[in-house]
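stage 2 :: seqdesign
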């Protein structure tokens, strides 16, 4: 079938009653809910129409080229891309924190709840991508483990971390019942079957990778298999599919940085998918991937320039020395403490080396971290912020802007 023949969601009315009466009377009195029933997609064919097919082919080709040139030799580029992706994916859910707080959360040092959530999103994404890379499969167990990572450090959600929902959920509308909603996912008893169908589709090798990743993501968001965290796990699935299909073997370009620039249009594209028009989300993902790939080339060049400049600033430390290796580490880990340096470099007492780089301005200590000192490399953090800003700026120039 062509993309224009993709089956739309159907809908069914089901009984509904609040488990614990809460909220306005209209919520407490709700007795029926209309749930969406996505099509089962494991065996569906997808023939892309020429314009969308050309976009996905060009996007995948550009991504592979970046990965071929920089993926194997610049592990630090992937670290920064992945962190940028996790930060901007969290922003789509209105979860935001400063880069310094985010770094402290990654180090396991006291940070606010938003920073911890962003750090957990990073861990969840890393797990899902890594398991897809090593096993060459997308599995429901991997999705559950990633969700466990996302909420393991959340005091209110830890009990449900890594478990599919067993109650009806909804998107938008009232906080107390599925009234005036944007989307009511399928009933909880159907979730496992839908997820198994989804992973069967995700593990196919006869589809264009970008289109496959887009549909996996859109279908996952329609199923909404968790009470919370669906958006972040769903966007991580995009990268898991691309890694499994070897569209990228090493890098995680920050696609969410483009999506966050068009948050309303992104949600509208998911609505189009439910109406039987997958071309919108496929084209949006292809364009976002192209932009993220293009801007990542610039970041790769910037990192090389920053590293060369540091060498001169630090007095050209001898290759293999603690200072030389720490400068290399900073391009991947621009927020660190002495413990991370010891762990990564095997230097038992790195404080002298850290202090030396702080004196010449390569490192700067974060304020209010006297008891547990944390340092940042301002030049690299500035590039992380600039990468996100450049992608968002380019995305806003595209014609698929908010309706």
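stage 2 :: out
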């Amino acid at each position: 079938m062509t993309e224009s023949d993709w089956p739309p969601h159907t809908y069914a009315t089901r009984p509904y009653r609040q488990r614990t009466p809460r909220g306005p009377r209209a919520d407490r009195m709700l007795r029926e809910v209309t749930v969406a029933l996505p099509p089962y997609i494991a065996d569906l064919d997808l023939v892309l129409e020429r314009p969308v097919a050309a976009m996905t082919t060009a996007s995948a080709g550009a991504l592979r080229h970046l990965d071929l040139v920089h993926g194997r030799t610049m592990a630090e580029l992937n670290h920064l891309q992945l962190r940028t992706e996790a930060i901007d994916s969290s922003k789509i859910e209105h979860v935001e924190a400063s880069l310094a707080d985010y770094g402290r959360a990654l180090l396991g040092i006291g940070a606010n709840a938003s920073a911890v959530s962003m750090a957990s999103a990073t861990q969840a994404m890393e797990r899902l991508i890594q398991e897809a890379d090593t096993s060459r499969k997308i599995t429901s167990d991997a999705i559950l483990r990633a969700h466990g990572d996302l909420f393991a450090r959340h005091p209110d959600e830890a009990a449900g971390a890594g478990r599919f929902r067993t109650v009806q959920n909804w998107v938008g509308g009232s906080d107390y019942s599925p009234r005036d909603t944007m989307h009511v996912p399928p009933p909880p008893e159907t979730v496992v079957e839908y997820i198994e169908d989804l992973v069967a589709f995700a593990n196919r090798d006869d589809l264009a990778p970008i289109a496959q990743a887009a549909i996996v993501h859109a279908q996952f968001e329609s199923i909404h298999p968790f009470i919370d965290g669906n958006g972040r796990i769903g966007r991580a699935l995009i990268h898991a599919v691309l890694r499994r299909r070897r569209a990228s073997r090493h890098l995680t370009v920050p696609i969410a940085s483009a999506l966050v620039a068009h948050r309303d249009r992104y949600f509208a594209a998911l609505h189009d998918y439910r109406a039987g028009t997958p071309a919108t989300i496929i084209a949006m993902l292809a364009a976002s991937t192209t932009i993220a790939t293009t801007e990542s080339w610039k970041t790769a060049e910037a990192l090389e320039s920053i590293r060369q400049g540091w060498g001169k600033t630090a007095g050209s430390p001898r290759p293999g020395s603690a200072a030389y290796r720490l400068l290399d580490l900073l391009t991947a880990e621009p927020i660190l403490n002495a413990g991370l340096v010891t762990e990564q470099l095997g230097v038992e007492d790195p404080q002298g080396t850290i202090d030396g780089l702080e004196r010449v301005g390569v490192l700067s200590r974060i304020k209010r971290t006297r008891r547990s000192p944390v340092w940042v490399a301002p030049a690299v953090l500035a590039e992380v912020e600039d990468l996100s800003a450049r992608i968002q700026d380019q995305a806003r120039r595209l014609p698929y802007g908010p309706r």
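stage 3 :: structure notes
- Residues 258 and 392 are 5 Å apart (CA to CA).
- The mean pLDDT is 93.
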